Amino acid sequence: MKRRKFIQTGSVMTLPIFLNGMEVTAIQRSRLMDLIGPENDKILVLVQLNGGNDGLNTLIPLDRYDNLVNARKDIIIPQDKALKITSKDALHHKLTNFESLFKEGKMSIVQAVSYPNQNRSHFRSTDIWMSGSSFNQYENTGWLGRYLSNDHPNFPYGYPSSNYPDPFAVTMGNIVSETCQGTITNYSYTLNSPADLRIIPDTERSVEDTKTNYGYELDYINSAFRQSNSYAATVGDKYNKGTNKATYPNTGLAGQLRNVARLISGGSQTKIYLVSMGGFDTHASQVNGIDPLTGNHANLMDNLSQAIGVFQSDLVQQGLDKRVVGMTFSEFGRRIRANNSFGTDHGTAAPLFVFGSCVKGGVIGESPTISANVGQDEGVAMQYDFRSIYASILIDWFNVSKTDVSEILFKEFQHLPIIEGCAITSIDENEPLVINANIFPNPASEFINIAFESKGVEHTSLAIFDSIGSLIKVIYDKRLDSGQQQVTVPISDLAVGIYYVRLAEGSRQKTMKVLVAR
Description:
By secondary structure, this protein is α+β, with helices and mostly antiparallel strands. The protein contains twelve helices and 21 strands. Helix content is 26%, strand content 23%. Helix 5 crosses helix 10, helix 8 crosses helix 9 and helix 9 packs parallel to helix 10.
């Protein structure tokens, strides 16, 4: 096997390592580690909800409830059973720990997170979330892998080191993350568990093989084995030194988070953990027949709520909670209208949850617009690009500069007030997050006027999307002068139907529905 082929398709990432019975994948140190700096002890835990979570049954817009009933009467959570957290918002009745975290000010909910031109394929959309790319970029590398390749072209030689004895990131599970794919090698690999450590022996060779191509390749493979053994030893040591002070339920996600808490407790310097749970592709039996309070989605919500609630309690009891922020994400939301199988199909945007003792509690954004007559394919219109949440956490949690973040993600991200109390934030927290804007006439046939006030100090984005999240036209993508703005947009080329105008300036945004009728 050629060395490059071995690096790309195997290397240490094919060496499975189990932590307390669960497979673990590790990601090496990247340039991001240099940006963060070893003196920063903050940790980010990413909770991936595989399959596309139904955001409208997770966070229920009470001010849109009547129209939502029309679109999904067989699956919607009854209003008197939902957990009301604001005058306009309620959580799924199984998210009791989410309700507690929100009321304690330890959960920030970001409405309608997606990206322009939402792709409804599991594989493609997951790839976009992992690479931090736009819809029309087909990256062969992950956003971490690109920096790893630039800074560590000789990988895997020289790792671990005395300065960085622990992996930069650890993924609980059995999937190698494409986030770490570099131009030549994938910088992620699998590790053995401290509960079941297995030292991989070197492969022996004959004297005749020493100076052959086979011998050189064997040296490389043995080097990879030795590196894996080194990481297995240090992860095992931290795990054995750590503890859990909360009792976790016997579920997959809870077990992963239990191991994360124990590694943190044991002194691991790992800064990013990725945990995941599947089952969110709820095309059928999302609810149990005509009972919307039971079924597959209710079970998922219960498992998610219990696992995150106990994890946060464990951190608090050990005095570790001010070092850790967690974030959920899913590749897309579900469509607004239910299907005929007591389920929902692939949609567009969905809420994203950030939790922890250093989070600025509250809801960012407005309730999704739900029409009286929702189209069969219609999804929730995007309010926030997912990369803006990534960027805000990197800036305010890891103290990465805006310049570096724009290189890692994209230039015109929105800096959102997600972190508060345990890290310095440069956001004016008194600034309203919703832009005062309006569209007229509405309905319209030939043109629309869009009126709003610009502050003139931030980049302004103004664009029109269709009902499934596709970008139709860009109106503005620049900095405007300060003051009242009004723009007339011809729409005679648009087919009859529902469209959404999204306006974003700095941390502020507004998504507005417009009906084209003739």
